[in-house]
Please model this.
Amino acid sequence: MAATTSSKTCDPKYFLLFTTILSGFLVLGKSHIFDVYELKIRGIKNSCNYDLMMVRMLNVEVRIAVTQDSDNIVRLADELIHLDDWSSREVMLKKSLQDPNCKIYVAEVDGKIVGFIETHVFLDFVEGAPIAIIQNVIIEENYRKLGIGSKLLQRVIEEAEKLNAVEIHVWTEFDNQQAIRFYTKHGFKKRALLLERETWVLSTYI
Model:
């Protein structure tokens, strides 16, 4: 991760990326604070072996998402953040699937989509290399703790390596202990603090 100033303010690239990706879901007057976790790509070892052994017991396939998967992806997304009106989410998903810097991978069990992971890769000239960021990981409730999340994460790590990304970043809430254990188990380390300021500009992205 790039060095920051002596005042230890959060790296501005987090704010720029967060604004670019998530602005379709913004509402006025709220702010949140998240921990940011980072995985260094170079020299990592596969820490997912046990989970991947579990997932082999299921008929799980991980593949790149296509337009025909949209309904299932939107349905799963509502398990994380409930929206009464899915229209804005559907618009953002369509744009994401067309964005060459965004990749969404789905996990299928016996042909049913039960989870997905969304990742973005951007160029960081300070690092002198691409950096990947995990935006969302969602597994259907009945299929959790079966190693499916680990298989999705392993696919993202492999693809990041192919793109010569030197780091993978992800953020989560302070009290989301399940997510923190999941990421740290796979080699992520707490590196920074992400500050979020939500706005009202939802309509400009529809």
